[in-house]
Amino acid sequence: MRWCLTAVLFVALICSVRPDEEFPEPSLRIMAKSTVYNVGEIKGIFCKGQNLVEPIHWYSPSGKLIEERSTKNNRVFVERKIEDNGILVPLIIHKIKISDGGNWTCKSGNLSEVREIIVGEKVKLSDTNVTLEGEEGKSVKLSCEANGYPAPVVVWYKDKQQIREKDEPKKYSIKPDNTLEIKKLNHADVGLYVCKVRQKALSHYTEKTVHLSVQHKPILYNSDTQMIYTNQKYKTEEVYAILNDTKNVTCSAIANPAPTYRWYRRQNGFDGDPITDPDTVVTSEDGTNSVLILRIRDDSYYGEYRCAANNSKGMESIIFHVNPGSKPEPPDFVSLAGANTTALTFNVTCSTCIFATGEEVSPDPKNLTVIGYILQLAPAKAGYPVDWDGAPEYRVDVEEANNTLFTVGPLSNGTVYHVRVRTRNAAGNSEWLEVADAKTTDDAIRLTATIALVIVTILVQLY
Ligand SMILES: *[C@@H]1O[C@H](CO)[C@@H](O)[C@H](O)[C@H]1NC(C)=O
Ligand SMILES: *[C@@H]1O[C@H](CO)[C@@H](O)[C@H](O)[C@H]1NC(C)=O
Ligand SMILES: *[C@@H]1O[C@H](CO)[C@@H](O)[C@H](O)[C@H]1NC(C)=O
Ligand SMILES: *[C@@H]1O[C@H](CO)[C@@H](O)[C@H](O)[C@H]1NC(C)=O
Ligand SMILES: *[C@@H]1O[C@H](CO)[C@@H](O)[C@H](O)[C@H]1NC(C)=O
Ligand SMILES: *[C@@H]1O[C@H](CO)[C@@H](O)[C@H](O)[C@H]1NC(C)=O
Ligand SMILES: *[C@@H]1O[C@H](CO)[C@@H](O)[C@H](O)[C@H]1NC(C)=O
Ligand SMILES: *[C@@H]1O[C@H](CO)[C@@H](O)[C@H](O)[C@H]1NC(C)=O
Ligand SMILES: *[C@@H]1O[C@H](CO)[C@@H](O)[C@H](O)[C@H]1NC(C)=O
Ligand SMILES: *[C@@H]1O[C@H](CO)[C@@H](O)[C@H](O)[C@H]1NC(C)=O
Ligand SMILES: *[C@@H]1O[C@H](CO)[C@@H](O)[C@H](O)[C@H]1NC(C)=O
C-alpha cells in the first residue's frame, strides 16, 4: 500500500512540473521603488513582462494609450527593451506635473498592473532665518509662504510652544496663507517664532525661523524678585541700608533699544544733579541694570534716590527710599547634616534672629526679618591659609522658620571645605560665623555604603 501511495505522489509531481517547462507562466510587473515624485522631475517607471504573447502597453490615468517617443510626443512616452529574461517597457515622463498624478496601468492582453503615482510639490521656503523688529503697540505679520502640493500642514511655534489662535485670539491671528499676525506688540512677544511645514505624502519637512524683537520703552523691575513694578505713575521701592556699610541699590530695566540710566539724589522732592561718579554708579554693558553703590558713612546718606531709564521709545523712573536698617545677627549654630559626592547639607540656626511669620510685609526697620543666609565654601589646601577671596558664595532663602536645613552644591567629590555662614536681611549681611570644615564623600559607588560612616566621622570631628 505504501509503495502505491509513493508512486501516485511521484506521478502527481511530474504532472505538476512538466507543463511549466513547456508553457511557462506569463507574468507582468511594474518595478517602481517609490511612486511619490516631485514636480519637474524626470521619471522612468519600468514594466517588466515575461513569457508574454501580447505586447506591453502603458495607459495613462485617463485611459489613453501611451505612444513611443516622437517629435509630437516627447514628454510622456514609452520605450521598448528586450532583455535576456523578458521585455522591459519603461514609461518615461519628463517634467512631471501635478496633473500626471493618478493610476497608471501597464497591460498585456488580459494581464495588467496598476500603480498610483503621486506628484507633489515640496514646499521651498525662500528665507528660513529672518530677523524682524516690531514696534510696541502695533502689530506685526510673520509670513510663511508654504506653497506646495499636497497642501502642507503649517504650524507656528513661539519659543517651542505651539501657537493656537483660538486660545489667544486677541494676540494672534493666523491667515489662510499661513501668515502669523501678532497684535498689540509688547516686550513679552519678543522671541523665536518657528513656522513648521510638513507634507506627509511627500515625507517632506521644512521650517522657517523668525527672530522677533520689539522696540519698547524701558520696563523697570525688581531684580531680586523679578517682579515688574506695577504700572503706577510713581514707582517707589523701600530699601534698607546699614550704617557704615555699603549698599547696592539696583535699577533693572527690560528695554529695546538698550536704555541709558541716570541717578539723582532727591532733596525735598526735587532731583539734584545727576550722580555720575563711576565709582558710585556702575551700569552693565548690556544695559540690563545700573547699580548705585551707596557707602552709608553717616545719616545724611539716607533719603531718596531716583533712577531714570530712557531710550528712544520713552522713559521710566523709580524712586528708592533708602532707610536705616539694622544689621542682622549672625547664626549661632551651624552643623553638617548631610553629605554626598556633590552636595553638603547644613543645619543653620539663629536663635536671636527674627523670621517673617506668615504674610507680614512691612518690617520694623530697627528689627528687620532675616530673609536667608550666605554660605561660603573654600576648598581646603593643606599648609595654606583659607582663601576666601573668590570662594563661591551660596545664597539661600529661609522659606519657613522651622526649616533649618540648606543644601549647597554642586561641589567636588572627596574635598574638604572651609565653611563660613552669615545672615541676610533687607539691609545687608551680618558678620561671618566660621564653622567646622566639611567634606564631600569620595565617589558615587561607595556612597550608599559609607554615607552614614562619613557623616558620623564628620560629626565626630565637629564635636
Ligand atoms: C487609484 O486606485 C486606488 C485603488 O484602486 C484608489 O484607491 C485611488 O483612489 C486611485 N487614485 C486615483 C487618483 O484615482
Ligand atoms: C488570459 O489569456 C490567456 C490567453 O491569452 C488565456 O489562456 C487565459 O485563460 C486568460 N486568463 C484569464 C484569467 O482570462
Ligand atoms: C539665524 O540668524 C541669527 C541672527 O541673524 C543668527 O544668530 C543665527 O546664527 C542664524 N541661524 C542660522 C541657523 O543660520
Ligand atoms: C561708623 O564708623 C565710624 C568711624 O569709622 C564710627 O565712629 C561709628 O561708631 C561707626 N558706627 C557704627 C554704627 O558702626
Ligand atoms: C555692588 O555692585 C558692584 C558693581 O556691580 C559689585 O562689584 C559689588 O560686588 C556689589 N556689592 C555687593 C555687596 O553686592
Ligand atoms: C534719553 O537720554 C538721552 C541721553 O542719555 C537724551 O539724549 C534723550 O533726549 C533722552 N530721551 C528722553 C525721552 O528723555
Ligand atoms: C546629593 O544630594 C543632593 C541634595 O540632597 C541631591 O540633589 C544630589 O542628587 C545628590 N547627589 C548624588 C550624586 O547623590
Ligand atoms: C538643627 O539644629 C538644631 C539646634 O542644634 C536642632 O535643634 C535641630 O533638631 C536640628 N535640625 C535637624 C533637622 O537636624
Ligand atoms: C526685635 O524683635 C524681637 C522679636 O519680635 C524682639 O524680641 C527684639 O527685642 C526686637 N529687637 C529690637 C532691637 O527691637
Ligand atoms: C513648619 O511650620 C509650618 C507652619 O508655619 C508647618 O506647616 C510645617 O508643617 C512645619 N514644618 C515642619 C517640618 O515642622
Ligand atoms: C571623584 O569622582 C571621580 C569620578 O566619579 C573619581 O574618578 C575620583 O577618584 C573621585 N575623587 C575622589 C577624591 O574621590
Summarize it:
The chain has 463 residues and is mostly beta strands. Helices cover 9% and strands 46% of the residues. Residues 340-443 form the Fibronectin type-III domain.
Taking Cα atoms only, what radius of gyration do you get, to the nearest Å? 40 Å
Give the beta-strand count. 33
Mean pLDDT: 88
What best-fitting shape do the alpha-carbon axes yield?
Answer: elongated
User: In which range does the helix fraction lie?
Assistant: under 10%
CATH superfamily assignment of the largest domain? Immunoglobulins
CATH topology of the largest domain: Immunoglobulin-like
> By helix and strand content, what is the structural category?
mainly beta
Features:
single chain, 463 residues, mainly beta, Immunoglobulin-like, 4 domains, 2 helices, binds 2-acetamido-2-deoxy-beta-D-glucopyranose
